[in-house]
Amino acid sequence: MAFNNYCSKLCMQYRHRRRRYFLLNLFVITLCLCAIFPFKYHIFQLSPSKPLPRNSSFSDLLRKEMTLNCTGDPLTTWCAAEMKYCNSSLLIYKNLFFLTRSAILQTIHAEGKRVGGEQIQAVLNQAENDEYFHFKKDFLQIPCNASLPRGITLQYHLSKILSSITSYQTSANADLIVNESTIAVNRHDYANIYHTMTDLYTAYILCRFFQRDPKSVRILFLDAHPHGNLDVYWSKLFHSYSRLGHLKKYSKILYHEIIWAQPQAQSDIDVQRHRKQTPSFFADFRQHMLKQFHADSTATRTVNCESLQIFYLGRRNYVAHPRNPSGKVTRQLPNEKQVLETLQKKFSGYSKLNFTYNYFEQLPIEEQLQTIARTDVFIGMHGAGLTYVTMLKPNRALVELSGPSWQSQDHFQQLAIINQVRYRQCAIQDESPTVAEKIFDCTKEKVLELCPSIMT
Ligand SMILES: *[C@@H]1O[C@H](CO)[C@@H](O)[C@H](O)[C@H]1NC(C)=O
Ligand SMILES: *[C@@H]1O[C@H](CO)[C@@H](O)[C@H](O)[C@H]1NC(C)=O
Ligand SMILES: *[C@@H]1O[C@H](CO)[C@@H](O)[C@H](O)[C@H]1NC(C)=O
Ligand SMILES: *[C@@H]1O[C@H](CO)[C@@H](O)[C@H](O)[C@H]1NC(C)=O
Ligand SMILES: *[C@@H]1O[C@H](CO)[C@@H](O)[C@H](O)[C@H]1NC(C)=O
Ligand SMILES: *[C@@H]1O[C@H](CO)[C@@H](O)[C@H](O)[C@H]1NC(C)=O
C-alpha cells in the first residue's frame, strides 16, 4: 500500500504493537459480547481502542503526526470522547465529527445534479436539494481489514458518509493524491454571513484541535452551492478550497488526512448551543480573520473616549440566493434614509462622537471587516449582518433594532456574549415617527456606558 511509504520503521513497530493490543482486546471483548449478544454486533462497535503504551520515540512521532489541543470548551470534551478504529485510520470525536487517514474518495458515489460554483444567475430557482450530493456506499474507503463501527449516530451528512465507508486493499490506483490536511465541509448556506461565520469557526477550531496551521489546510466543499461572495472567506482563512463536484474528473482520490467537519447546526457558536461563555480559541479566530483581511486585529478593551466610532449597518436588496431571485430583503426600515439623516444630525451635536453608516451587501469584505474592527458602537436591524458583532473588539457595544416579531430572539445577544460585547435590544415600531429618537436613546445608553462623560 502506498500508505506504507509514509510510514517509517517506527510507525511499523507501532502498528505491530497496536496489533497485539488489538488482538487481545478483540479476544476479551468477543468473549464478553458473545455471552451477552450472541452474533448480534460487530466487535468494533463497542471497542474504541485504548491509548497505547509508547516509548519516547513513538510519542515523538505521534506528536508530529497528531497531538490534540484540549484547551477550553468544547475542545476538552472532544478530547475526552475520542474513539479510534481501524489502526487509527478512522477517529470519531464525541459523535460530532471524524477524521480519516489514508482514505480514498470515490467521486462517482457522490450523486448530485449540480457540481457547485455556478454563477447565481444560471441557477435561479433551483431546488435546495439540488445543491447537495447523495453519498452512496463506497464513497469513502479506508484501509481497514475489519468491520466498521455500526450503531454510531452522527448528524446529517456525516451519518451518510460514515455508512458509505468500505475497505480498500490498495491505493495504488488512486488518480490524485492529496498530502495536505483537508477539512471537508458541507455548508448549510453560503450566502448568509451567519451560517458562513459559524462554519468558518468550526473549521478554524478543528485546525486548532488537531494542531494544523489553518493557512496550510485545504477546504473541500461537499455541497454543490453556487458561487457566492462569501466564498472568499474560505480561501483567505485557510489555504484554499475546492469543490467535490469539480473533482469528479478523478475517480479515486487518496487523501492522507480528511477532517469531516460537523454540520453548521452543530457549530459551537450556533445559537442553538445557547452559549454563555467564549468557546475555545475564539479570540484567536477573530484575530486570524481580521489579519487575513488587513483589518485592525488588536483586541484592546480600552475605548477611545476622545473619538467614539458609532456605526449603523443598513440593509439593501441584493440577489445572493437562488431561492430569493428578487433579492428583496425583509426587516428594512421603510423610512431608513430619513432615520439616518435624523440620527446624523443628532449625533453631530457631540464633537467626540463619530456617527457613520454603510451597506455591506456590495462592499468588499476587506472594507466590511475594517469598518467593524474600528467600530465601538454597532447599530443594526435584527438580521444576519449583525453576525459581525463577533468581529468587534471586546468591550464594545451592539444595539440591535428589532421589530415586534423578532424581539424574543436572542441570537445576536448570544454572539455578543461570545465576543464579550455589551448588548442592547432596541424595540422599534417600523412606521413610528419617533423611530430615530428611539434609536438615538438606545445608542446613547450604550455610549454613556462606555464613556460616561462623552456627551456632556
Ligand atoms: C522505543 O522502542 C523501540 C522499539 O521497541 C526501541 O528500539 C527504542 O530503543 C525505544 N526507545 C526508547 C527511548 O526507549
Ligand atoms: C494548546 O494551545 C495553547 C494555545 O496556543 C497552547 O498554549 C498549549 O500549549 C496547547 N496545548 C498543547 C497540548 O499543545
Ligand atoms: C492494522 O494494521 C495491521 C498491520 O498493517 C493489519 O495487519 C491489520 O489488519 C490492521 N487492522 C485493521 C483493523 O485494519
Ligand atoms: C483481511 O485480510 C485477510 C488476509 O489478507 C483476507 O483474507 C481477508 O479477506 C481480509 N478481510 C477483510 C474484511 O478485508
Ligand atoms: C505526496 O507525497 C508523496 C510522498 O511524500 C510525493 O511523492 C507526492 O509527490 C506528493 N504529492 C503531492 C501532490 O504533493
Ligand atoms: C469617522 O469615521 C469615518 C468612517 O469610519 C472615518 O473615515 C473618519 O476618520 C472618522 N472620523 C473621526 C474624527 O474619527
Automatic annotation (TrEMBL):
Its EC number is 2.4.1.255. It holds the Pfam family Glyco_transf_61. InterPro entries: Glyco_transf_61_cat, Glycosyltransferase_61. This is EGF domain-specific O-linked N-acetylglucosamine transferase. One of its GO terms (molecular function) is protein O-acetylglucosaminyltransferase activity. It is an enzyme of class 2 (transferase). Keywords: Endoplasmic reticulum, Glycoprotein, Glycosyltransferase, Membrane, Signal, Transferase, Transmembrane, Transmembrane helix. The keyword Transmembrane helix applies. It comes from the Eukaryota. Residues 270-398 form the Glycosyltransferase 61 catalytic domain. It catalyses: L-threonyl-[protein] + UDP-N-acetyl-alpha-D-glucosamine = 3-O-(N-acetyl-beta-D-glucosaminyl)-L-threonyl-[protein] + UDP + H(+); L-seryl-[protein] + UDP-N-acetyl-alpha-D-glucosamine = 3-O-(N-acetyl-beta-D-glucosaminyl)-L-seryl-[protein] + UDP + H(+). The lineage of its organism: Eukaryota, Metazoa, Spiralia, Gnathifera, Rotifera. The chain crosses the membrane at residues 21-41.
